[in-house]
Design brief:
alpha/beta; 7-stranded mixed beta sheet; two-stranded antiparallel sheet; 22 helices; binds S-adenosylmethionine
């Protein structure tokens, strides 16, 4: 507990508050900041501290008001503009972020940081060519800055030039080391483009240069596993686990490789990391893989409408970029609510303008707090991130209106009498057996109306098999 003496030096107090916020000790910083505000005249510096504190405590409205006050008090201070730009970017107000960053560039045309911020905001606004130009200027000013280089590579890829994007990442690495984040970004780039051997090579180069990092070994394991080198992948995963025993991403991949018993669901941090990183390419990639679930769900929704007429509200769990919303948008339905754990997937969905409401949350937490019901609840390719389904199904069942349908897709797990009804597969998704699905749906208060075999999409040239299920709430027993 911090105590405040009347004789305290206000400057030292302000420094102390800043240090506490930096250390994540917002609870301790709050009373000290309040005391500082009584001792010191109002200033942009105090507004800035209050903004950082409010953001650290998750109070984004308050943080924004403090940032606004700081900028209003000193509109010509580029550093304040940049602070507010970063905050606005983090909280999804990309327009404001771009305007502030642009102001900072105007105030100081040599400010590479402001140019990089502007580039990132333009990228989030879907203007990759402009983003690329700004980030190129930032990188030219500071060629050794790995964060600028990584952002430029992202913009360059989004601008349709993946070869140049990879060259930018590769150019920032040296055989004797270089930035770890940049190396991991380059490895991830190779994995995403299915250049698994090159990914292993980059990881190996890093290891030889003395890099010791859980993520690097985790990615190496992922690439090796994709090449069918399962023994080598297991070694890499084991190394990753030693280095980052608590890292949710690593733990999930390690479990998927069979080295750890699998958890009952994919960890939220893992999901966010995977889908935030995937959001921009998701639609193109899934369409390229012949993803069939939106079409199959549309067919089922149309069938439902044929019996009940226009219907709503509708809930899309794990809505992602909104491909299901697109598939049903022309039907007499609505309003449509989407929930997803990944802010970037939601940003793509928002851009499609189909959903009345989009919420960023873990579906399990979100459902637990809801009093309302839906006539249709849809879940396309999202239950594959849960192993045991009972918790989620019990949360969904009371949220279905009488006569409503729950339409979901799952990946098929081949029956095996010896094992449980679900298992975690190497790619990090869960598959479920038909018998388990039947049993768990019934146990959680549903009647299974239909469970149709369904090709979900193609993967490595082969169909991924699963089911499209329609379930209704079981009639109440009196
Ligand atoms: C394969 S995508 C499918 C997206 C969409 N339903 C579709 O069919 O196009 C899976 C989505 O589920 C989301 N997701 C996975 N687990 C989740 C959870 N526990 N809570 C909220 N969203 C989740 C992911 O972020 C991702 O956007």
């Amino acid at each position: 507990m911090e105590t405040i003496h009347a004789s305290v030096d206000p400057v030292a107090l302000v420094h102390r508050v800043g240090a506490l916020i930096d250390a994540g000790r917002c609870g301790a910083a709050g009373p000290l900041l309040a005391a500082a505000r009584q001792l010191i005249e109002p200033s942009p510096e105090l507004n800035l501290l209050a903004a950082r504190l409010a953001e650290g405590q998750g109070e984004h409205g308050l943080a924004r008001a403090e940032f606004d006050a700081a900028v209003e008090a000193a509109p010509d201070q580029g550093s304040l503009r940049k602070r507010r730009a970063s905050f606005c970017h983090r909280t999804g107000d990309f327009e404001r972020a771009a305007r502030d960053a642009a102001e900072a560039v105007i105030l100081d045309p040599q400010d590479a940081d402001a140019k990089a911020l502007l580039g990132s905001a333009l990228l989030s606004l879907g203007r990759p060519a402009d983003a690329r130009a700004c980030l190129t200027e930032a990188c030219t000013a500071q060629p050794g800055n790995p964060a600028y280089r990584e952002a430029l590579a992202v913009a360059t890829e989004a601008d349709g030039d993946p070869d140049a994007a990879f060259a930018i990442l590769r150019g920032g690495l040296s055989p004797t080391g270089g930035s770890l984040n940049l190396r991991n970004a380059a490895i991830l780039f190779c994995i995403r483009h299915r250049a698994f051997r090159q990914a292993v090579g980059l990881a190996e180069e890093g290891r030889i240069a003395g890099t010791v990092d859980a993520c690097l070994f985790g990615l190496k394991g992922h690439a090796q596993s994709s090449l069918g080198m399962h023994a080598e992948a297991a070694e890499s995963y084991a190394e990753a686990l030693k280095l980052g025993p608590g890292d949710p991403y690593v733990r999930h991949l390690v479990a998927a490789s069979g080295l750890l018993p699998s958890a009952k669901r994919a960890p939220p941090d893992y999901l966010r990391a995977v889908f935030d990183g995937y959001a921009e390419r998701f639609d193109d990639h899934l369409i390229g893989l012949g993803y069939r679930i939106p079409g199959a769900i549309r067919h089922t929704v149309a069938e439902y409408l044929g019996t009940v007429g226009p219907c709503g509200p509708i809930l899309d769990l794990g809505c992602g970029t909104g491909l299901i919303g697109v598939a049903i948008a022309d039907l007499p339905i609505g309003p449509l609510t989407g929930v997803d754990i990944s802010g970037r997937m939601l940003a793509e969905a928002r851009a499609k303008g189909i959903y009345a409401t989009l919420e960023e949350a873990d579906v399990l937490d979100w459902l637990a707090d809801r009093p309302d019901t839906w006539q249709l609840i849809l879940a396309g390719d999202v239950l594959c991130y849960f192993g045991a389904l009972d918790g989620l199904l019990r949360a969904i069942q009371p949220r279905l209106a009488p006569g409503g349908w729950f339409v979901l897709s799952v990946e098929e797990r081949r029956e095996d009498a010896e094992e449980s009804g679900w298992s975690l597969q190497r790619q990090g998704r869960y598959a479920h057996s038909r018998a388990y699905l039947d049993e768990v749906l019934r146990a959680c208060g549903f009647v299974v109306r239909r469970m149709d075999a369904q090709v979900i999409r193609m993967e490595a040239g082969a169909p991924v098999l699963g089911y499209l299920i329609v379930a209704e709430p079981a009639p109440a027993v009196h």
